[in-house]
Inverse folding.
DNA sequence: CTACAGTGCTTGTATGTACAAGCACGAGGT
DNA sequence: ACCTCGTGCTTGTACATACAAGCACTGTAG
């Protein structure tokens, strides 16, 4: 049949209209959480569109977390919706530059250490095996905004210690040498250790945001990093929905 | 031809492999930011897959912000990207129950106040207009894990104060009464005020994670809430990529 | 020299078809 | 009573094809 192209000027594409229709049903309460919505074939019959078009609409809504699809069972309205907020944490260098400020990185130290039990576990290496360690301070207009305390698996980045981190951030170097396939994050609030407070030029009692990030290349851990940011100087923001 | 199904056991689908290949090229620096990557037809010829399969891979990467596609021009590597991590913050009650623990909510206070200048601004109401205020503590196995300090716009939830928050969380009630269309979040690290520390049963110097959330229904603000969580007891986690 | 239509590329959408994979249920055997 | 296998539904992926829409370049007409 192939009846594409009869669409008028401003009419949105079919798959988008299907998405809107479904969001409308959910928003109006007609399809509450956990409700099973019609199958692809039923929607095909009801709307007179191709299954691939329906499939695309449902797949995208599932990717957005609005729907939950289970092969063999059906498609259901997800329940999380009311409460799942999404945060994005970006590369610090990019973020600073995007604000139009100057970014600089100071290498405090760079050396090779023997893996402690915790470190061996974190990086998935043998106890006592050599591990690279670096301590870098990121400055925004000469004010310290982040302390980057990083351990690197030498097997995946043997030349790590030879790099100049004021020219290329450790992050950028590592993602070039060993592209990641999986990333793991945690965010918490902590008090800085005395030496950390000194490096960040803050008082010992000032709370900090701590982001822990572990980066995997396949099954192996490339690097594990602690990003310590003064609570007053940085925060994570996000906005979701109609961007007003 | 239709040669589907020759795929082995654990082999990921073709479109996913194409995505990985592209992410690898970008990660390795072979395709830097702003670089134009091969067209769909070129990839079809190079990889021996159908254009729809290539299209799906590129479309999904574009949706993730990794690629930028311009009709008539081509597909380009987006800038920034290199380290955007995504965090999900869920409803605390759900999260606790999902861990198999007991969740309880204690209402500390519930009253009507007059909007201060800051409050009026935050909620978009007149200065001095009545505003509902509630203070609820969330407990996980009888240990306080979150202090919820909430202000509500009476216009959108007039019966708010009459609710029993030990039966239904304020959150859950509000999302039923006034479904949100937009949410705004910030996360930072702070020290608790003395009275807050007392309610959370922590020391005054213990750092806390503070999540601020503003919820909109259309153009109007439904509620603005401060979620204060002891740094040691809770954190935000996320995992991205091949789920191990 | 300039304006404009044409051409050839690109991505965007839509359809029809095919087979794989997963789940629930019931019929049948043990 | 219990186990097993088949059947019919569901979603997941892959393909071939078609046309629309947008962009840059080129050749031609003025």
């Amino acid at each position: 049949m192939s009846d594409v192209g009869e669409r008028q000027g401003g009419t949105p594409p079919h798959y988008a209209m299907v998405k809107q229709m479904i969001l409308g049903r959910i928003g109006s309460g007609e399809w509450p959480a956990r409700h099973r919505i019609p199958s692809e074939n039923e929607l095909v019959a009801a709307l007179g569109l191709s299954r691939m078009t329906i499939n695309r609409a449902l797949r995208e809504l599932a990717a957005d977390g609005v729907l939950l699809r289970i092969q063999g069972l059906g498609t259901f309205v997800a329940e999380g919706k009311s409460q799942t907020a999404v945060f994005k944490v970006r590369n610090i260098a990019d973020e600073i530059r995007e604000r139009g400020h100057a970014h600089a990185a100071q290498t405090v130290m760079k050396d090779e250490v023997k893996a402690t039990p915790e470190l061996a576990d974190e990086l998935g290496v043998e106890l006592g095996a050599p591990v690279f360690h670096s301590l870098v301070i990121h400055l925004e207009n000469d004010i310290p905004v982040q302390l980057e305390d990083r351990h690197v698996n030498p097997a995946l980045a043997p030349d790590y210690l030879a790099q100049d981190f004021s020219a290329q951030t450790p992050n950028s170097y590592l993602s070039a040498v060993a592209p990641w396939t999986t990333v793991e994050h945690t965010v918490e609030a902590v008090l800085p250790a005395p030496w950390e407070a000194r490096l960040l030029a803050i008082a010992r009692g000032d709370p900090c945001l701590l982001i822990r990030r572990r980066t995997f290349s396949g099954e192996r851990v490339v690097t594990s990093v602690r990003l310590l940011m003064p609570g007053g100087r940085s925060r994570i923001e996000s906005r979701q929905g109609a961007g007003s």
Q: What stands out?
A: The radius of gyration of chain B is 24 Å. Chain B touches chain A through 61 residues (CB under 8 Å).
